[in-house]
Amino acid sequence: xxxxxxxxxxxxxxxxxxxxxxxxxxxxxxxxxxxxxxxxxxxxxxxxxxxxxxxxxxxxxxxxxxxxxxxxxxxxxxxxxxxxxxxxxxxxxxxxxxxxxxxxxxxxxxxxxxxxxxxxxxxxxxxxxxxxxxxxxxxxxxxxxxxxxxxxxxxxxxxxxxxxxxxxxxxxxxxxxxxxxxxxxxxxxxxxxxxxxxxxxxxxxxxxxxxxxxxxxxxxxxxxxxxxxxxxxxxxxxxxxxxxxxxxxxxxxxxxxxxxxxxxxxxxxxxxxxxxxxxxxxxxxxxxxxxxxxxxxxxxxxxxxxxxxxxxxxxxxxxxxxxxxxxxxxxxxxxxxxxxxxxxxxxxxxxxxxxxxxxxxxxxxxxxxxxxxxxxxxxxxxxxxxxxxxxxxxxxxxxxxxxxxxxxxxxxxxxxxxxxxxxxxxxxxxxxxxxxxxxxxxxxxxxxxxxxxxxxxxxxxxxxxxxxxxxxxxxxxxxxxxxxxxxxxxxxxxxxxxxxxxxxxxxxxxxxxxxxxxxxxxxxxxxxxxxxxxxxxxxxxxxxxxxxxxxxxxxxxxxxxxxxxxxxxxxxxxxxxxxxxxxxxxxxxxxxxxxxxxxxxxxxxxxxxxxxxxxxxxxxxxxxxxxxxxxxxxxxxxxxxxxxxxxxxxxxxxxxxxxxxxxxxxxxxxxxxxxxxxxxxxxxxxxxxxxxxxxxxxxxxxxxxxxxxxxxxxxxxxxxxxxxxxxxxxxxxxxxxxxxxxxxxxx
Length: 747
Description:
Blueprint: H1 8-14, H2 19-26, H3 30-39, H4 47-54, H5 80-97, H6 111-122, E1 127-132, H7 138-146, E2 163-167, E3 179-182, H8 194-200, E4 201-205, H9 212-221, E5 237-242, E6 251-254, H10 265-278, E7 281-287, H11 294-304, E8 323-328, H12 336-354, H13 358-366, H14 372-376, E9 379-381, H15 391-440, H16 442-493, H17 495-505, H18 509-551, E10 554-557, E11 561-564, H19 569-578, H20 586-591, H21 623-629, H22 636-647, H23 656-670, H24 673-714, H25 718-739
Helix pairs in contact: 2-3, 5-6, 6-15, 10-11, 11-22, 15-16, 15-25, 16-18, 16-24, 17-23, 18-22, 18-23, 19-24
């Protein structure tokens, strides 16, 4: 087997460095640099610094033997049948829409919404998100999985961009390039939306040598020349299409690395949140040497709060089966037993650290225990040149993408279409029945109008009173949440409490300094989230009571008794929420409805709930939805700032536990952690109030619209009745459309 040595002199010259320049950067002599270049070998203790100086990865400085590529032999048949069926369904929709039957946006679902959802389902493959430290070898792993060298590696500027890679056969016909740079407002989940794509495309090209990567690098070097005003480096997105077997099974997402000194801290924090929200499958990389340090604990703990919990028909789907924690750069210089000890040791340390906080949250979300062994099973190693160091990772990813995910995607698709068929048919049937009854009895229709007009002031008073009561509840919950947050923070960061915690959990200074501040941060988040979850559950019940009172669309008048309207008030309320942008506590109520009963749909992701900003998987509100409905994790930057500030502090001998406790308290105060927790709480309940008001206003508006429609029909000339008859005919055609949706249902 032939061994190829790295061309160290060539790499140095490409970095525009002389031997003397490099020697000065490394703190060695020029003759040592010359010797390394002659032998083609860099000492292990210099590998990281040497690579950084040359602007390459550590892998590029190591000798390589015959390199094998990953054997992801997925063909286009994996989702071919599903795609073909969805294309036929789109033809059915478009043939009907060609008849131009009028639709009303206030009635859910509409055919336009159904088409948007089918388009989203058609483009849905699992998103495999790769993230980790900036020199962990993410792009190198992605290239291996793709079977080539498409992605740039090393410290090149283009590695700062999040890159979304689809299979070339998935590229829409109106996209002419295989690689495009998109501006900061581009939504990667709307890559199939032609108008959205064209609006946000900056530049593009091909994968050929000298093609797009040169263009992209030139774009960066020109400091975003040609980009929309306000775009900053690191916020743009690369959208790519590649002919690689792996991509028949998924979309590969390569995120920029954390701790890249050229990337703004807020951008890094935003990207890690983005990873958690978008990942169906998460690959988290950390170098085998120094594997899972305290910053990794903070980042990975943050991500795991948003990881999706799949409901799968295959009972062999492992616990946390969509999570891969990878020790990269696991080179042969590390003995196998040494590597195993590193993986098992850090898995145990991580599990013990988060056992009574994060893993309790994950247990609630999954509805089952998550043991240390379950978590340890999600640890893998990677070294491309040695099959034994990557075999477990390859097999696990292959099985997940090839066996487990296709039935999950198919079942989700079936459920989404079934919901539209059922809810659309039932919705229009109810509307038709109400209007036909009124039309059939014209005199009754006029009486109904008189009753409505006379009862309207009373309805408005009751509506206003119910809204004010609900708003008072939100204000009460906000105050309770804020007070509890303040109490927890003060209790957990009291020096006596901190000292006791350190004494109980840590026997040595190094471990305490590494993890104690992170543990306090987790404890505060876990306690405040549990308390907020109780408030949110209470608000769910209050929301239902409000809808029964006002949104049930019935009201009593002393003279006429019970007056009813055909308003679907829950749909009206949800329609108002969809326009609110953020939901606060009402996100949990919306998630509890399943997929909102088919009321709201947009072509933004895998599920209808994405319309309300709640990411889902397999047709259910997964962990991401649960986290979002509780206000989301506090920004990653806070946890990192606290952890790093304590980690770099010099700890002295003697009564170190007391001094460490005081330092942690000082760091939390300096980072203004309580202020940020309070801000998160206020924002959460303020968003709840705004969302509720939007929903309540939409109910009121639809009542008023209904009254106007009745008045137009029975208070005007005879022609208005004919217009009402025509409207009923339209409703009957729409009902027929949903009832006749063609699909191959599983038996």
